[in-house]
Design brief:
Blueprint: H1 2-14, H2 21-51, H3 58-73, H4 81-98, H5 100-109, H6 113-133, H7 143-164, H8 167-197, H9 203-235
Length: 236
């Protein structure tokens, strides 16, 4: 009997019963859009690596930024939903292409780093997202000020390091950046929940925040794993 009660409590825990039904429906739409965006980004990366029809560079970055701006300027209406989904897919596609040059460098070191980084990013993203969704309070929303201040500090540190060229500062920047982006997964997830509770049902735009968090973590993990592999190769 006691075991059955434990099972029921765990089942209720992972069904997110503490979230209102409109919020659960909204999150389902957000994560569905995120899955589509991730698939589109993967196609973009594949196009760069294996077809060379489009290659990552300034043009792909400008294309992704342009589509993001268009998406932000297009009103969130039922009539515009298909158009905005197309913009999201295009933005994700060109973002994936923009990762191409970094993936080229990583493949030269060790091609297995890319799937390892993707798996690691997925685990980090899922764990932090669940932590935010299963939290009873809005505690992670208070991280916002700290996280944005941290980003500003990392930006200034990067500019400062352009003149110093310190390897130590570079690695501190890299690992702190990864930690901050993990914090943004917590913050953005709870922020999406609160926005929906306040009547904002733009699940396509909300998906952008989580997509960018995932991409930034993936990028930093690829660099960190590549640096470790390079150091190991030098020792051997």
């Amino acid at each position: 009997m006691q075991r059955t009660e434990h099972i029921d409590s765990y089942a209720a825990f992972f069904k997110f019963d503490r979230l209102e039904k409109p919020v659960r429906v909204h999150l389902k739409n957000v994560y569905s859009c995120l899955a589509i965006a991730m698939l589109s980004a993967a196609v973009g990366g594949y196009v760069h690596l294996f077809t060379r029809m489009f290659e990552g560079g300034i043009l792909s970055c400008l294309a992704s930024i342009g589509l993001l701006v268009l998406l932000a300027l297009t009103p969130n209406t039922r009539e515009n939903q298909v158009k905005r989904m197309g913009m999201l897919t295009g933005f994700a596609f060109f973002t994936g292409i923009s990762l191409g040059p970094l993936m080229d460098m990583v493949i030269e070191i060790d091609a297995s780093i890319i799937p390892s980084a993707f798996l690691g990013t997925t685990v980090i993203f899922v764990c932090f997202s669940l932590s935010a969704l299963l939290s009873d309070q809005r505690q992670w929303l208070y991280l916002g000020g700290i996280l944005f201040s941290g980003l500003s500090a990392l930006f200034m540190l990067s500019l400062f390091n352009l003149f110093l060229g310190s390897r130590l500062i570079y690695e501190i920047n890299l690992y702190l950046g990864l930690l901050i982006m993990c914090g943004f997964v917590l913050y953005d997830t709870q922020l999406i929940v609160e926005k929906r509770r306040n009547g904002d049902d733009d699940f396509i735009w909300h998906c952008i925040d989580l997509f960018l968090d995932f991409i930034h973590i993936f990028r930093k993990l690829m660099i960190i794993l590549s640096n470790k592999e390079e150091k190991k190769n030098k020792r051997n």
